[in-house]
């Protein structure tokens, strides 16, 4: 658990079931190979996951800008904007079975290689 710092987890590798709560900037930044990790922004965090790679089953909740931003190779990830986040996924690529909801602008903004059959739009 990383609780209420500037960033939760920075440049971490091979994490599972970790929680970043209330970070001021990013819950997870520059991390790779994450499984079932959660960024709970508590209304404070800009982006739950920023510049991360190889994510599976990760969740972003209550971010101010985006649940996932400039991330790649995501599978079964969810972004709940709680009516506050602008985007669910922003400038991400290679997404499969990802889901975004309760955002104010776009579920998938400037994202590339999104599997339209398995991701909501």
What does this structure look like?
With 121 residues, the protein is mainly beta. The chain is 0% helix and 53% strand. It is built from no helices and 18 strands. The strands form 3 sheets. Strands 1-4-7-10-13-16 form a 6-stranded parallel β-sheet, with no helix packed on it. Strands 2-5-8-11-14-17 form a 6-stranded parallel β-sheet, with no helix packed on it. Strands 3-6-9-12-15-18 form a 6-stranded parallel β-sheet, with no helix packed on it. The chain is globular and about 35 Å long. The N and C termini lie far apart (31 Å).
How would you briefly describe this protein structure?
The chain is 0% helix and 53% strand. The chain contains no helices and 18 strands.
Defining key terms:
121 residues, six-stranded parallel β-sheet, globular
Q: Spans of 5+ residues with little confidence (pLDDT < 50)? A: none
* Count of individual beta strands: 18
Mean pLDDT: 95
Cα-atom Rg, whole angstroms? Answer: 12 Å
Span between termini: 31 Å
SSE arrangement:
Elements: E1 2-3, E2 7-10, E3 13-16, E4 19-21, E5 26-29, E6 32-35, E7 38-40, E8 47-50, E9 53-56, E10 59-61, E11 66-69, E12 72-75, E13 78-80, E14 87-90, E15 93-96, E16 99-101, E17 106-109, E18 112-114
Parallel strand pairs: 1-4, 2-5, 3-6, 4-7, 5-8, 6-9, 7-10, 8-11, 9-12, 10-13, 11-14, 12-15, 13-16, 14-17, 15-18
